[in-house]
């Protein structure tokens, strides 16, 4: 239990200190491991009474705790979207037109239009409000971060990379292997 508790303190330090409001996946994993120990659940359910450190810690890690929530997980939201014709079509358009968003490069005007269209579809709205979960959680969080950063720029500020959105995506955009320099092989002596 002591090892699991130390792991929890280390993994959740940024949340406990207030530096982060969202819970990183390694913090959640450490909480799960802590709860698998004999005394772990008691730590989560204990009453802090008048201990300010205990209260602030419990308040800080509250977003990390497993819960029955009304917010849908993104895995379920995607499955429901795929079963709806309009949502499925919009999602395919999103995957095509927002490719550069996934790599953190830019959010084109066509991508913004697709996102606006998806936000008008009830089943697709769930993809916007869902909580990243499952094996694709890290990828999901990265894409949501890129959407918030690159696609939500104010109208006054230049959005994206500065490249023209009329510039089409080409195969060369994804084939830059020759730009990568491989290290010289050297022998260790």
Automatic annotation (TrEMBL):
Pfam families: GDNF. GO terms for cellular component: plasma membrane. Residues 1-64, 74-151 form the GDNF/GAS1 domain. The keyword Signal applies. It comes from the Eukaryota. It is found in: Cell membrane. Residues 166-181 have a biased composition (Acidic residues). GO terms for biological process: regulation of cell cycle. Keywords: Cell membrane, Glycoprotein, Membrane, Signal. Residues 156-189 are annotated as: Disordered. This is Growth arrest-specific 1b. It comes from Nothobranchius korthausae.
């Amino acid at each position: 239990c002591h090892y699991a508790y130390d792991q929890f303190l280390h993994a959740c330090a940024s949340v406990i200190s207030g530096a982060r409001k969202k819970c990183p996946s390694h913090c959640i994993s450490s909480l799960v491991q802590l709860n698998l120990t004999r005394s772990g659940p008691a730590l989560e359910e204990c009453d802090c009474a008048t201990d300010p450190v205990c209260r602030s810690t419990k308040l800080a890690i509250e977003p990390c705790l497993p819960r029955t929530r009304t917010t849908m997980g993104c895995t379920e939201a995607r499955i429901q979207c795929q079963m709806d014709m309009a949502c499925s079509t919009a999602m395919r358009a999103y995957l095509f037109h927002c490719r550069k968003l996934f790599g953190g490069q830019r959010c084109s005007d066509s991508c913004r239009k697709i996102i606006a269209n998806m936000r008008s579809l009830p089943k697709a709205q769930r993809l916007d409000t869902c909580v990243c979960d499952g094996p694709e959680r890290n990828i999901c969080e990265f894409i949501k971060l890129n959407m918030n950063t690159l696609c939500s720029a104010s109208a006054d500020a230049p959005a994206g990379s500065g490249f023209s959105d009329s510039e089409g995506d080409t195969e060369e955009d994804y084939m830059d292997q020759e730009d990568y320099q491989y290290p010289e092989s050297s022998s260790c002596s």
